[in-house]
Please model this.
Amino acid sequence: MDFTETSAEQAVINSFSATADPRLAEILTAVTRHLHALVREVRPTMAEWEQAIEFLTDIGHTCGPARQEFVLLSDVFGVSMLVETLNDSDGGTEATVLGPFHLTESPQRELGDSIDLLGTGAPCVITGTVRATDGTPLPGASVDIWQCSADGFYDVQQPDRQPPGNGRGRFRTDSEGKFWFRTVVPSHYPIPTDGPVGRLLNATGRHPYRPAHVHVIAEAAGHHSLTTHMFVADSPYLDSDAVFAVKRSLITEFADRGSHREAHFDIRLAPEGE
Ligand code: BEZ
Ligand code: FE
Model:
């Protein structure tokens, strides 16, 4: 049968009918349905289609060991956040995006250590407890932290100005599930704008900023691991995060104590199998 606007979608879906893996078949069918619907709706010209292919090619060329532009594209469309939200464990602390700056392993540090190796910015103490969703404290849980400097840059973005591991630390909770460490209050910052995603934001009048935040991955045996952020309560852009990652429950007061600021962030992990 001729390939026509109306027969095309089903012809492509039929071509996948021998797919052995049922989940793969389901995904390919849905991708085909949605792609064809998109093209029928938008009716791109040949020139527009070439432009789309060039854009995606450029996204690929911008990827490397220290840069993942496809993830960034997924982030600015809210897709990373949608996937996180759909996979969130019930009853635990809410999850949010991993982001592209968890590139290096955080140095293991002792409770109370500072992750700030620069000595610039507002000093800050962060404390919290890791618990299961039923409230049981989780001793020996891993709390992996990374954040940008007070100027809004991660160590990997400024290898000539920041020592590796600045703003990063992996901690183990104590016998009561508690963790605490010192740092500086991070700044809001722009996501990378020097690639095709930046051009997309520019063309659409969108700003590239993320509100100030501290990244956390919490892990404990027998529990779902959690990737999240604590957001600094008085930061700009909480209402317009470029990657749509703010959840109200994650906004954390960084209280002014005169000599330093203090934040408290409790974490709940859902037991595996729930
Ligand atoms: C981040 O918070 O590190 C981040 C997340 C998504 C895109 C860019 C940066
Ligand atoms: Fe970040």
